[in-house]
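Data deposition worksheet. Section B asks for the primary sequence of the deposited chain exactly as it was used as input, without tags or linkers unless they were present during the calculation. Section C holds the resulting structure in token form. Section D is free text for depositor observations; keep each observation to a single sentence. Incomplete worksheets are returned to the depositor.
Section A, Depositor: J.P.
Section B:
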Amino acid sequence: MRISYSPRPTAVMRLALALTLLAAMPARASMFSGEALDKVADIMAIVVLIIVPIVVIVVFWLVHVLPERFAEQRHHPQTDAIQTLCLLSLVFGGLLWPIAWLWAFTRPVAYKAAYGTDKHEEWHETMGEKALAGKLLSHDIEHLKSELDAMAAKGALPANLKQLHTDLARLAPPSNAAGGPA
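Section C:
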């Protein structure tokens, strides 16, 4: 049995084509007309010329300070240098931003070798305040003491951390892990 294909349109196809042509609506460029169209065009121009550039600049700035924020969260010892690189990246159109991003997430091994720690000075101050208030666990206090000892051995202990170092040396270890009554 042979099935033949006829390239001629059938009656159903002709009827569907005729209904489609009769049902076509006239084309419009906008759903607004007259004064409403002018008002919409004015509003769109204001948005495109004023609001969009402001939003783009703010987003650009927020993205470019992310490495600085991550460095602060991670207590990176070179946070100030990363912040400077982020600001320079804003001036140079974002070319230095990938370097700042990588720097914020690297472990400062050479810094630790030179200064005895890989944490920012503020971290030591915060942890020292917690230790003196009795809010740190004993192993955290010992870790803080060992970092301050290493920094003192390298001769890289600032004056405020020298005072903290002597205060922690006089501090007796807590009786339990929480620092409170058993």
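Section D:
The chain is about 65% helix and 0% strand.
Residues 175-182 have pLDDT under 50 and may be disordered.
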